[in-house]
TrEMBL record:
Homodimer. This is dITP/XTP pyrophosphatase. The keyword Magnesium applies. InterPro entries: dITP/XTP_pyrophosphatase (IPR020922), ITPase-like_fam (IPR029001), RdgB/HAM1 (IPR002637). It comes from Streptococcus ratti.
Length: 326
């Protein structure tokens, strides 16, 4: 056992932890103790015999964030491989194929709520969200983001029988709603759809909602990037090549009003493609005043500042309340 200090901090949560040779102790505000005290007591049951830790909760808004932080310390110190997922308001802790802990919300859950109408006990349950895309790059980004909420992520490649939803809307929100609400009705699942695009100022906002098919019906990322460079061939000053990525996220579920969030990511269109990460227009999109293209950023760097990353952060702030609402 070492004396390593662990810390997790974002806008809404801040935790500090350390293994200790003395008795376990937890410090937090009285309101946080009322809400999360039982959760911490449950998590302590995962400590190896004779182990203890000191935990300081400076601020907290998410039980899942606290669970993820707690498990990170235990996995590091005790060589476990615990993972957390959410299910119907409960937090499930698993290790490989074993369910080792269920942390229930205050007031508990009915059996039918927890297991669902099919009451299928044959597999460990877990809330999932279906991303309305077949793009594995986009799915990977969303998977990393939703993992913080303990949500499993699927995409349309898991449902080859589903029809393609025509994006006939004239705005990003119209297209995102079409995809999310149509697929949710067909599957009965919670579905997230995004309509994202690049808007170049000197082109009047093009390619906009046509970003994915800018170069025609057989469009590819390479063809789209080539067409964009051609359209800007006579624009030599970088300041005149200003642009921004926009994204609108819509989450739909049966018998619920859809949830909508939006975000923008400003930058410029470079003179040539650079970088091998990302997808779409990332190799051409110069991020703000950084001089780097989006394709030169790591996945984590991009998730922290991109239009999609910003939109998901906004989504995370309102998603738990929306998910619980009837």
């Amino acid at each position: 056992m070492n004396s390593k200090i662990y810390e997790y901090k974002d806008e809404q949560n801040w935790f500090i932890g350390q293994y200790s040779e003395t008795d376990s102790s937890v410090y937090y505000q009285e309101e946080a103790k009322k809400t999360y005290g039982s959760l911490v007591r449950d998590l302590r049951s995962l400590l190896d015999e004779g182990s203890s830790l000191m935990l300081t909760v400076v601020r907290i808004a998410s039980s899942m964030a606290l669970v993820q932080f707690f498990l990170e310390m235990i996995n590091d110190q005790q060589q476990h491989t615990y993972e957390a997922s959410s299910h119907k308001g409960a937090v499930l802790v698993t290790e490989e194929d074993r369910l080792v802990l269920i942390c229930l919300p205050k007031g508990g859950l009915t059996v039918s709520e927890f297991f669902g109408e099919e009451n299928n006990h044959s597999a460990i349950p877990g809330d999932s969200i279906l991303i309305a895309t077949r793009n594995e790059g986009k799915t990977k980004e969303f998977s990393q983001m939703f993992a913080k909420l303990g949500l499993k992520v699927e995409n349309l490649n898991h449902y080859p029988e589903l029809p393609e939803v025509e994006e006939t809307g004239l705005t990003f929100e119209e297209n995102a709603r079409l995809k999310a609400e149509t697929i949710s009705k067909l599957t009965g699942k919670m579905v997230l759809a995004d309509d994202s695009g690049l808007q170049v100022d000197i082109l009047g906002g093009l390619p906009g909602v046509w970003s994915a098919r800018f170069s025609g019906p057989d469009a590819t990322d390479q063809k789209n990037n080539a067409k964009l460079l051609h359209e800007l061939a006579m624009v030599f000053d970088l300041k005149d090549r200003s642009a921004h990525f926009h994204t609108t996220l819509v989450v739909a579920a049966p018998n619920k009003e859809s949830l909508v969030v939006e975000a923008d990511w400003p930058g410029y269109i470079g003179m040539e493609a650079k970088g091998s990460n990302g997808f779409g227009y990332d190799p051409l999109f110069i991020v703000g005043e950084s001089g780097k293209t989006a394709a030169e950023l790591s996945a984590q760097e991009k998730n922290d500042i991109s239009h999609r990353g910003q939109a998901v952060k906004k989504l995370m702030e309102v998603f738990p309340a929306w998910q619980k609402a009837h």
